[in-house]
Amino acid sequence: MTSSTFSAAQSIGAAVEATPPRKGGRLRLNHPATPYLMLAPYVVLLCAFVLGPAVFGIWVSLHDWDFLLPNKPFIGLQNYADLIDPNSITFEPFWKGMRATAIFVVASVPFLVLIPLGIALLLNRTFPARSFFRAMIFAPFVLGIAVIGVLFRYLLDSQFGLINYLLGLVGIPAIGWTQTQPWAWVGLVGMTVWWTLGFNTVIYLAGLQGIPRDHYEAASLDGAGAWGKFAYVTVPGLRNVLVFIVTTTVLASANMFGQSYLITNGGPGDSTKTAIMVMTQEGLRSFKMGSATAMSYILAVFLIIISAINFMALREREAKK
Amino acid sequence: MTTSFSISRRSLLGGALGAAAVAGLSACSPGSAGAPGQEASVSGGGGAEGYDGPPVELAFWNGLTGGDGPIMRKMISQFNAEHANIKVTMTAIAWAEYFQKLPAAVSNGKAPEIGLMHADDLATNAARQVISPMDDVAAALKLTEKDFAPIAWNGGLYQDKRYGIPLDVHPAGLFYNKTVLEKAGADPEKPPTTGDELMAILDQCKSKGIQGMWTSALSVNGLSSQTTVYQFGGKMVSDDGLTAEFGQEPAQKAISWWKGLIDNGHSPKNAAADGDFVSFTNDKAAFMINGPWNTTPLTALKKLKWGAAPVPNIGGEQLVWAGSHQFVLPRQQTVDANKAIASRVFVNWISQQSLTWATAGMVPARVTVLEDPEFAKMGPVTEFAKELDYIRFVPPIPGVNDVLPEWVTATSEAMLGKKPVDVALPEAAEKANKILAANQKKYG
Cα B60 to the chain's mean position, in Å? Predict the structure, then answer.
């Protein structure tokens, strides 16, 4: 990655060099260090808060680690071995957590990718109060999970909640939103979709506005209808946006924590206890940072693989063109 | 194009505002102002010789985010007013986050001077060196077992060293709704004292179409079921900390009793986690077994007619779950002698003032307060104080609470009928035993 950035910077540098240098207070764009200096603030932050801790985490995961205990025995790969040994303490909670996470990702991502696309298409048209609706769609996203959590605890309350009350008006018996499956997942996925769809909608809107208008005009001249324009102009035009949205949405859903933590507390049973909740319990409540870190690396490996598959599946296929 | 950009900018602004508002909400520590102007007149007898050094500021962290927080703040304001050279600032952090933040603060040398903890967290935090032993504090203040309710005093010990000075004991209690009892035709001034009496009233309620005592699969795992585990002759964890006993017969009987409330129509099937509280405060249920910290929120509801009583003897032995708030001294990397003295003055002063604290429903730990005639007039809390002779704590074993997630999951599955009680609990106990064994190894 760095090498390609470097060569790109070199060629820009070369281009700049060709123009006569300005005098006084000029930016030394042609200096070899310039691109690195530009990148420096980001790289420093990345190293300090992402790469550094990530590498240190590998070290932690090889120990029975509690940062406050003087004795942190080195145990090699034992934490990882425990995660594939069905008889260990960590095996069952971790894989149950992974399963719950997988269910949530599979259940939420399609809605979070498709519904915002539909909304973005609607909001991209010209109609009165369009700005108002755009703001309203995005509004829930600015709320913190604590607010959303409290709100939906009221809404989803099985006896006194507004949702069951409304269902009751049309004759549907009360649903145990936090006590029964699959309703617990329905509730969690539903609230997550409502909460976060605004973000993806805004990204789609930006993408839609990046598609040149003459493409649609050309399609009209070729006799394309609304569906034709959507399938042959909009979707290809949004391909890069789609890759971004699918990837970030999968990652965000895989990191689901607050909804389960606040609404169902991992229940009923432990069916909505996500991997992140398991790690929180292990590392921050039981202070077993070593095994919690090992868990997080396994989750990270899964997410890297899934993201890679996303890129492969959605990238532009040169051969077909 | 331009409109769209202005929209996104507006949304961004909205986002920033929202974020700022949330940040403002979550940072909820206004602190209490000191009392400027008053010259040093530190009470002499208070903390040994009191504190007459230069002005110091003390940070006091606790998890009193509920109805008890304002009462503690009021007491701190009073302390600050009476001690011109000590300014205590209180920060309330929800307990779960508190136990994450406090260790981090200690390891960075930014620990508050004073903390509050539950007795069942002392051992873990002592073993992890989050808090310092304070036998010297007890000695300097001449505090002994005679000054406190014995179980509260002993709850401050870990490996024969003192890590906590008790503020209160908060046992589970029975709350009864007089309006509902009247509606059911029961005597609203005569709360049940045994399981049979309780059941008789619940049956009376049922005959009037009232689900008298709500329980929830999501929250039964707390003090309500643990109280009955003790009553049926069981324990959560054995005294040596090596065995989770919540898989055994007494615990199975206890959970079956709670499940029976649902099966026999005394509670709806899918009550929310706070269903007991919500049904009680909305005059839908007659009883709830809950903590004394409900005193403040219940008192705030002017229309609610309620009373409190000791938990009835449901299981056969008159026992009750209890917690205890204990003052602790987080470990400092550099010790400031002035602050150390001032902290002791504060701890001593406030434990003597626990009469005010009793308005939060907490039973004072200090004997002088318990025997104060003013205390006898305080209503519900005096009922909880009757339970002092038979309260139960978990044993002081580091990491003892690590087994609770297993208990929470198992009770949830058992209550919802996903697994039979006699399968769910033993399975959970088996896993919990492994956790206890690992902790034994870890903490040595």
Answer: 17
